[in-house]
Write a structure and sequence with these properties.
Blueprint: E1 4-7, E2 61-65, H1 68-71, E3 79-80, E4 83-85, H2 102-107, E5 115-117, E6 126-132, E7 135-140, E8 153-156, E9 177-186, E10 195-202, E11 212-218, E12 221-222, E13 246-248, E14 252-257, E15 262-264, H3 283-286, H4 295-299, E16 305-312, E17 315-320, E18 331-333, E19 343-346, E20 362-370, H5 376-389, E21 453-457, E22 478-482, H6 520-526, E23 529-534, E24 546-547, E25 556-558, E26 560-566, E27 590-594, E28 604-609, E29 612-616
Parallel strand pairs: 1-24
Antiparallel strand pairs: 1-29, 2-20, 3-6, 4-5, 5-8, 6-7, 7-20, 8-19, 9-16, 9-20, 10-11, 10-19, 11-14, 12-13, 14-15, 16-17, 17-18, 21-22, 22-27, 23-25, 23-28, 26-27, 28-29
Length: 620
Amino acid sequence: QGGIQHIQGAVGGQWTDTATMMSVMSGSESVYPGGSTTGDVKLPASLQTRYKQPESFHPNLRFWFTPDSFEEVSTADGASVASWRNVANICHSDHASGECTAAKKTAGDTMAVEALVQTTGGSQPVYKKEILNGRGVVRFTRGDTAGTTGQYLEMHTTSSSGTPGFSTNPFTSNSNAYTIFLVAKVNQAAADTGSHGILQLSKGTADATKNGLALYKDSVTCLTGQGKAGLGCSGTACTSCEAGQYTAFGTLNAVYGDTTPTVDDNSCVANCAAGCSLSAPGAACLATWGPLSSAVEYQSADAFHVISIRVSDTSMSGYVDGFHASGTPPLSVSGETAAAIEQLRLGLKSDANAQNEGFGSVDIAELLVYDKALTLQEMDRIGNYLSVKFRLPAYRVNTDVGSATRTAAVSKGCGCGAFWWSSPACNTASGPYCAAGAALASGNCVGKDHELRVSRGPHYLSIPSGAGATGPTVGGNTLRISGYFALPSDVDVEGSPGILGAASTAGVPQIDTTSPSGTKDSQVSARYLAVSVASVPVACRAQRGTVQCLASDVVERFATGCRIFAFPSAGTNDAATACASWAPPSPLGEIRCEMPAGAGPSKDLVIYWHGVATVLSGWY
């Protein structure tokens, strides 16, 4: 089948103090900390796969808490968690951190010293093995049904200092801008009431208000006596309700701000006093839930989700399972005053310094914190890594060819709607950006350049346009991959916004002509480009292009010498203009590599951009 699908998606090396533009995902020049073999000072080996893992030396990655740190030391199932170590590397030259001393560099100890800690035995969560796609989680349990006591972790300056807080505060270093990613679910019991705290960023210990940012779930409530049979419901408290009997849904909620923080409550308690149905809660309730209006698939906090939160001073946006390009994120606050964050806690949402409320029963698999507001594409890529790792098929990256924040390479027929999968009835009277049924003012979309095309030839630079010479499967021949949407929309230039530099103009990446030969941008971008030949298992594939494959699922051989051969410099490369005025991008975006051994008709071709993979079948 000549179609395309999207995969959501160990090499050692010594650390060097080199500042350069970096993607949030690892690339061809990523290095991993050496030195001591002690687990506490090295990035776990399971996080050292290029092109598929976050870049641990990224200058804005401040905290990274992952189950890999427990798995590498064979932590027992049910073991108490006194400390969860941070595996982010803080010895990058762009980190203005006093933690990165000469002694740490010499020892190969590049890890941040802060840790999530709980010194009180009765308040320690536990580590549970093989909970989510074979990976472990940290499990927090409240001590009573009202959540007035329970287990939690809080940030300490070191794992053994006993001093709460940060050694270097990441939340005030970039104008109160930061981005948080976590994989979590709430384990509400039938009789639970009140808020289940998941994550809290708060003001200092001496500040009684604890204002800042909190992510939580309010317990489900039903009309009296209408809880589902067999769930042990008592009165209105329950984990689920009969159809039409919800008075509060178990959604993810957030509060953000200082002095009088703004609450974004998605539980629809204000709309459902007389009872609501989960399948049809009403327009007012649906409007709070974001781009996918289904509580069962999208908003329920009782299932694992990839949750991403971006804060930029006075505003906060929270997303569930991707959909970062949506104009209606399910969690949103604006016009607030940012609180001076001095503490990070997990398993708790407390509105008072006494910490006697809002304890949650929650599983947290992974947490990453960046001390800047990442771009939407960067958020897509980190979320994609988490969705692949924990096999969460509801996650969506942005593959909309009409979007200026598209994340993946896309192959798309004429007139097939904004998303390549949205309408199989394509026609030549419509352009790639035309909505389904809309026609171009003149001409036909007859070229194949809107689809990804693969040519093969004997020499790296001599392939004529449209060549298709078949070479031997021993490798070394040239792969030439071209198409309007072969490059993600933010692969562009250095400086200003964007993952590698300035934002595109009308969606068209702009080449920097001031660097030698005007090639600096393509060289930098190509660090995060990888092409492989693989057999992608059918078991990994799902509807609508969602493909969930781990590195262990796919045996692949990587092409060498991959580079960006051509950027579009003219034409329409997004849907900013009307369908009728669309003009083909020119020159055609193109990637060139040297083919690996093992290519053949039975193999898929996988194109990775910053960890997000696109799979072409029937290309050979």
